[in-house]
Specification:
- By secondary structure, the chain is of the alpha/beta class.
- It has helices at 14-27, 39-43, 47-56, 67-75, 93-98, 108-118, 145-153, 176-194, and strands spanning 35-37, 61-64, 81-84, 102-105, 125-131, 158-165.
- The relative contact order is 0.10.
- The structure holds pyridoxal-5'-phosphate.
């Protein structure tokens, strides 16, 4: 043990992580991409080794909570797509573009800052929308989504690539609240479809 002031430690079996990713892949359709959430140092398991194991096992996306977590993965040589789940402040726009991170956008200030930084790129820069379907922590409220998506579409350096939400109590046996969240999320997707805003992921 390098640090003998710690009397407890966790041993992480990276083979078990690979096995779990493969099990998830086997349940999903072949065209479904698997994203490994490695936020908060992969929940204490070690962001870099877990990210590498997940990618080796077939995950194609990683997710982190903050921009700096994404930068750390890039600087360690990770090339896969990285979604930043949490709030992306406008001052981080330059880093997001430079490190090819994919931000969840929820404010026009951030969208404008990203559009400015992405203007010189050869291709549109992808962003995702985070919808608050009931968790109450972070995201666009359902009524805000269509006007926000329209504003985003008017900024050619940016491409609306994905949309997602977060189930608040998905690990509880009572699935009522999760069902209601899913219904709310589907309502948002329908409203976008009616306005012919296509979001591929
Ligand atoms: C869609 C989604 N899944 C999972 C997570 C992971 O968060 P938590 O560990 O708090 O569930 C987040 C965090 O923002 C998220 O947005």
């Amino acid at each position: 043990m390098a640090n003998n002031t710690h009397l407890t430690w966790a041993e992480i079996d990276l083979e078990a992580i690979k096995h779990n990713i493969q099990a998830i892949k086997s349940l999903a359709s072949p065209q479904t991409q698997v994203m490994a959430v490695v936020k908060a140092n992969a929940y204490g398991h070690g962001a870099l080794p877990v990210a590498r194991a997940a990618l080796q096992a077939g995950a194609t996306w990683l997710a982190v909570n903050r921009v700096n977590e994404g930068i750390a993965l890039r600087e360690a040589g990770i090339d896969a797509r990285i979604l930043v789940l949490g709030y992306c402040p406008p001052f981080q726009a330059a880093n997001v573009v430079r490190y090819r991170l994919t931000p969840a956008v929820t404010t026009l200030e951030t969208v404008r800052a990203l559009a400015k930084r992405a203007a010189a790129l050869p291709r549109p820069f992808s962003v995702h929308l985070k919808i608050d379907s009931g968790m109450g922590r972070f995201g666009l409220l359902p009524d805000e989504v269509v006007p926000f998506a329209r504003a985003l579409q008017a900024m050619p350096p940016l491409r609306l690539e994905g949309i997602f939400s977060h189930f608040a109590v998905a690990d509880e046996s009572d699935v009522d609240f999760s069902r209601r969240q899913l219904q709310t999320f589907r309502g948002v997707l329908n409203a976008l479809q009616k306005t012919e805003i296509a979001i591929p992921l």
